[in-house]
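Working notes for the structural subgroup meeting. M.R. asked for a predicted model of this chain before we commit to crystallization trials. I am recording the input and output together here so anyone reviewing the notebook later can reproduce the run.

Input as submitted:
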Amino acid sequence: MALIPVILAGGTGSRLWPVSRRQRPKQFLRLFGERSLFQETLLRAQQVTGELPIILGSEAHRFLIAEQCRELDIGWRHIVLEPAVRSTAPAIALAALLAEEASANSESHELLVLSSDHVIEDGAAFANAVAAASAAAQSGALVTFGLQPTAPETGYGYIRAATGQASAGASALPVDAFVEKPDAQTAARYLAEGGYFWNSGMFAFGARSYLEALDHHAVGVHACAVAAIEHAEQDMDFCRPGPAFLESPAISVDYAVMEHARNVMVVPATFGWRDVGSWDSVRQALPRDSRGNAYQGDVVSLETENCLVRAEHRLITTVGVENLVIVETSDAVLVADEGRVQEVKALVEAMEADSRPEIEVHRRVFRPWGSYESLESAERFQVKRITVRPQASISLQKHHHRAEHWIVVRGSAEVTRDGETFLVTENESTYIPVGATHRLHNPGKVPLELIEVQVGSYLGEDDIVRFEDLYGRS
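Returned structure, recorded in token form:
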């Protein structure tokens, strides 16, 4: 029986603004090293099973998902693009149905459901926990992973094991109850009593077992998922579920199935788990100095305590402050009391009401062919740095309201302009008049870098008429 990783890669991570933006949310960011949280999840799954993953994400992140997989040379069974956010139960149902389609000899595959925004420190302990969960799932159980609490945490839901006091590393235990996020006093009692575990949001179960439980406890979710897969379309590397998915109730797997099914078990584990949901969790996951500070980037501090300071583009200095989160990006700075970082989500909502672009994109915007970064913008002109990956091309397009000047600073550009194709190399430039049909291609083996100067009455990204596109964009 194959153990198929199911990686949940949706979500916007608004509590980690200004680093996390809707077009490039936290799971695709390199918060702690050279790889993103999503990539670390891919590698973690690869270490416990040789099966290719089923990845669930959104339309906006489809090329980002594929590119980060390719960076690790990791393939996939399916990249499923959810047409709308419907929480975890419907998403996992899509994966289970796709896994069942691939089952041979009527044997149901097992699913290992992982969130793409978790930090797990001990890979060996994680592998042991997965083995225990897989063994229980093969007997028909729906298994969740429970982390041994190390503090009276109020930000997590809890799982109460039916046996009461239970030790980490034990085999799967029957679940007595799922408990909502407690207040501080209740969380302290859970810690003292024992037998309670943090609900990690990771699961292992047979695809068929999950679908049967879903059909019994959340029939609407099951029916919509079945119809969505029946009418799914394959678009390049991506699976697009049918419109019935939009009719599905939005409900988590805990509420839909795990809290109601009888055959639910928990594997107690200690593998250094952390759900990176807010800036205080980032600080806890980073090395800290003797005064409790975590620094990233160019930071100089005096008389500073219990702060997280992250500098991405310039020097940040602090004097005589404590319990602050300070995060700097190229176009925004966040300063927050560490005790109120959960309210960053409300801050993002307030900016959304003001139609602030900073909640959507960074100055550097990623595209399937590479990226562009806005360097300067004013009335009637804009300057960008454009990077095109080797052998990649922008779409064949034109603009109604702007002309473009391209200056190549690295590599060679193959330019198509109104049917003529020619090469532009380093220290050379070319001009694209308003209304000219054009394409930019990198024929080389190194990234193509150029400076683009736009001039015109309107410079918005929606002033693009595409005629041909390698990536299926309209």
